[in-house]
Predict the 3D structure of the following.
Amino acid sequence: MTAKKIKKPEKVVKQRNKYTTEHKEKARKYYLMGLNLQEISILLNGCPVRTLEKWQLLDKWTELKQPENIKVKALELKQSGKSYSQIAGLLKISRVTVWRYTTEAQQTKQPKNGLKSN
């Protein structure tokens, strides 16, 4: 009896996915819109959640989502000539919130002397 050698199937090397800065920007935009990483993964055609977590940590997405940054951004947009409606559309917040953020930011920038003007 001759022993037949069983051939093992050749190992297929899986190509790694390469993500562009466009993917990263889309993911950041979705995150700032309020989606979680699992939802973003689905929208980006199965981009691994771990990859999104790495991007989130490297670019400090959570800090971008803080209200203080939104207040400053709203004030900058208002000073550049944008209307409350345009700013609300860009930042995905209501017009009233934009008005409140800009007035609060302007008040914090103005020095408080305690002097009354006559």
